[in-house]
Write a structure and sequence with these properties.
This protein has 309 residues and is of the alpha/beta class. It has helices at 18-25, 33-48, 67-76, 87-98, 110-115, 132-149, 155-163, 171-177, 191-200, 210-222, 235-245, 272-278, 294-308; strands at 52-57, 82-84, 102-103, 118-121, 124-127, 152-153, 182-183, 207-208, 226-232, 251-258, 281-291.
Length: 309
């Protein structure tokens, strides 16, 4: 209990911007409003700091939504030095450069959607031609080209090669342009990963060298004075961030945004304080857990950071 920190009524006027609203929300008390304001404050300090290795991790699902544009703009602005994500991010980022996804509903008739060749990702509708077909077309064209230039390729080098072939709406395009590594620890778990495997059937000297990825992360972490992370959702991308940072005694900054709970023992629901017990986040780190749908909170955090930075 913090007895000397009084709860203040939130008063918003038409003159307020997102930065002043968030500043006021720090003292509003419950329930998640206070924590989104704290997350904004931590991220601002982390991004401003010149001696901090800045990492963002996220699952692929949000790249199927309009939040792709927010992440792309963060990468374009060079707010992060390292991206760790899942194979589906490549799938959606590639597909959406060439085809459209559509608004849907959670309570749709999935049998009818299947008959119409429409995939459902939450409340996003993805026509078959906008996903598997277009990814297959591009991979069959690009993989022979990539093979000729690098037969022993890391996932971050592969992501840069793909980024060269995409347009400015793409996360990978800006990652390549700004030479920000994109690490995909679970590279085979998606459409792009399947096509890598399929290509390997004919070209057995083609290697996706994930240990080159691990060497890069190791070098970045060990050479960093401090490190911080914006961790969206959970899974392998989240764990890869905190796993490597235990070797430098933990993250100095950590913002978790997730709707998962810790009661089932899942990593996705594990809080920052649990990571402290493993030495993956420092005891005195600036850290916060924000329970929120990423597609709801991230646009407001981005707005705040654009105003402040």
């Amino acid at each position: 209990m913090v007895e000397n920190r009084k709860i203040k009524d939130l008063r918003i006027s038409k003159e307020d911007g997102i930065d002043s609203i968030f500043d006021k929300m720090k003292n509003m008390g419950g329930f998640q409003g206070r924590y989104i304001a704290l997350a904004a404050e931590i991220l601002e300090e982390m991004i401003r700091s010149k001696d901090v290795l800045k990492i963002i991790s996220f699952p692929a699902c949000i790249v199927a939504t309009g939040v792709r544009g927010i992440i792309k703009d963060m990468v374009k602005r060079k707010w992060f030095d390292l991206i760790i994500t899942t194979c589906g991010t490549l799938d959606h980022d590639i597909a959406r450069c060439f085809e459209d996804y559509y608004e849907g509903e959670f309570n749709s008739d999935d049998i009818e959607l299947h008959k119409k060749d429409i995939h459902r990702l939450g409340n996003v509708f993805i026509p078959k031609k906008s996903y598997g077909i277009i990814i297959e077309e591009k991979m069959k064209k690009w993989l022979p080209e990539i093979y000729e230039s690098n037969k022993n390729i890391s996932t971050y080098e592969f992501c840069w090669e793909v980024g060269k072939r995409l347009n400015e709406s793409s996360i990978l395009y800006w990652a390549e342009k700004n030479k920000i590594p994109v690490i995909i620890p679970g590279i085979t778990d998606g459409a792009v990963g399947y096509h890598l495997w399929e290509f390997w059937q004919e070209k057995k000297d083609f290697t996706i060298n994930i240990l080159k990825d691990e060497q890069l992360i190791s070098d970045l972490v060990w050479n960093a004075k401090k490190s911080g992370a914006l961790i969206l959702g959970g899974g392998i991308s989240k764990h890869h961030v905190i796993w490597w940072n235990q070797f430098k005694n933990g993250l100095d900054y950590a913002v978790y945004i997730s709707t998962a709970v810790e009661w089932d023992g899942s990593l996705s629901g594990a809080q920052t304080k649990e990571a402290i017990s493993w030495g993956k986040i420092k005891e005195k780190a600036k850290q916060v857990n924000l329970y929120s749908d990423i597609t709801l909170s991230l646009p407001f955090l981005f707005w705040y950071l654009v105003k402040k930075l």
